[in-house]
Fold:
Amino acid sequence: MKNKIKVTILGIMAVSFMQVFGQDRVNRQKITFDQKSEIMSKAIGWAYNTKLGEWVDYINVISNDKDYKDKYKNLQGAYMMSHTKQNLSTIQIKTITYNETKYFVLIIDKWNGRYKYPSIKEDWREFKVTIGYIFTKNEYDKLANIENILELKTKYLVNMDLEYEKYDEIKFLDLIQTELSKEKSEYSGEYKFPITKSKEGAIRFYMPDSFSSYSKYDFEKEYFETDYANFSKILIK
Structure:
């Protein structure tokens, strides 16, 4: 009798083992971009230099350092831009569908940089990064009425550092899917995309950032500016 029970138990264990370890390995279903806007590749960065009492302008970067216009003119471009968060190369919006919900991804290509030897601040290296800020439809719809200062807000961000690798759309989409699968608490950091319109109708904005009481944006002192026709390139038609 005991032998029969033992055989029965072993049989049940064998079947359970086969069920657990015999299951198919199923990969996560991939997502794709559904729609995409045109690409905006130019905006003027304006910043007020209080020492000179002048507004200073550069293409695709905000800086109030006028020395880059004459003394260090040869450092304009990647070197100059990689020293500030407020720079851009291209901006585009693409949509994805995740768990039957539509999201709008603001994709920004920009310059970044770091020291090879940070402890002694030597050998500065600049490189491109691609950042995706993932907004809900409710946030994206704010762009339909730009009058006073508005903020598109999100807790979801993905980042591809292109210092040692090339941009890969499949990997970028995988990063987006993984980011959206995370549960964000009410205490998670928040990224804001501030936008407003001038009296003349020009669009003014900042690159998205985790602005705080210590690092506020201020449209009275600096901003990117472009006409509405150029800005509207990043809107989904």
